[in-house]
């Protein structure tokens, strides 16, 4: 788990432990903006039904796409750190012989 002393030492990366927190924060923001867009689309339907409907669909689509791309970005960051760990293990294994 994350320890406060890890902030001052460079033996261990802290990003893999906090990336999940950032992921959920971004998901929360995406959902909030999506809800805002949905209400704006519903409000715009009073003025222009077709335009409001398009805005409503765009908001829902944006939430889905945003969640997927956020997950992809978080996994990419974790993969980079996992590759680093595996390369370190390979290096250590090679030095033993």
Describe this structure in a few short sentences.
This protein has one domain (17-95). The chain has two helices and no strands.
Task: Supply the key terms.
mainly alpha
How does this structure look, described?
With 97 residues, this protein is an all-alpha fold. It has one domain. The protein has two helices and no strands. α1 packs antiparallel against α2. The protein is elongated. The chain starts with 14 loop residues before the first helix and ends with a helix. The model has no long low-confidence stretch (mean pLDDT 88).
Topology (SSEs and partners):
Elements: H1 15-44, H2 49-95
pLDDT below 50 for ≥5 consecutive residues: which ranges?
Answer: none
SSE series: HH
Helix share, percent = over 70%
Rough outline:
elongated
What is the number of E strands?
A: 0
Mean pLDDT, rounded to whole units?
88
Number of domains: 1
> How many DSSP H or I helices?
2
- Oligomeric state of the chains in view: single chain
Spatial extent as radius of gyration: 21 Å
β content, as a range? Answer: under 5%
Structural class: mainly alpha
Biggest sheet character: none
Head-to-tail CA distance between termini: 32 Å
